Known about the structure:
Elements: H1 8-16, E1 27-30, E2 35-37, E3 51-54, H2 57-62, E4 66-67, H3 81-93, H4 101-108, H5 112-123, H6 127-145, H7 150-156, H8 162-173, H9 177-183
Parallel strand pairs: 2-4
Antiparallel strand pairs: 1-2, 1-3
Helix pairs in contact: 3-4, 3-6, 4-5, 6-9
Amino acid sequence: MADVNLSFDEMWDRIIACDRSYDGLFFTAVKTTKIFCRPSCRSRKPKKVNVEFYFEMNEAEQRGYRPCKRCQPEVEHSPNVSLVKSVKAFLINHYKQKLILQDMADHVGVSPHYLDRLFKKETKETPRSYLERIRVNKAIQLLITTERTNLEICYDVGFQSPSNFYKVFRSLKNCSPSEFRRQNKNGVLE
Length: 190
């Protein structure tokens, strides 16, 4: 699987949020404990300076880290994990593009209906809602770290219309992008 196009800060934000939807896409290694975890691990969060991220489990193991006993990152819980992981990586790496379910299904070689059903069974959300969440997370990074307008950010992160951007943002964050920017001027993510 190809590396996922996420910055250190984006991965850090995902582990702080214990975001289960990023499990398997990257692993968090803690230098002080020599343990690596899933992004969703509920263990106490390490200091940011003590963290390294790896896209492959065996890479973390080669660097001397062992799997966390709490989140068990070495255990795949379903035979469909690799297909779902491939779709997630595809969505993260292509979030700026106009994507339809057929594009995602073509990437993994299954029918759109089967992919939609399987993805929802494994992740409790549709590929579309997962893609929207990725886009909102990317928008949050831009809202906090840049002075770009909401409209520029809307198109930068792959939304096709401002109205959809505002609707999805509000449904996921319970505020508009402007309200979010005002509330988080100091760079703290909710």
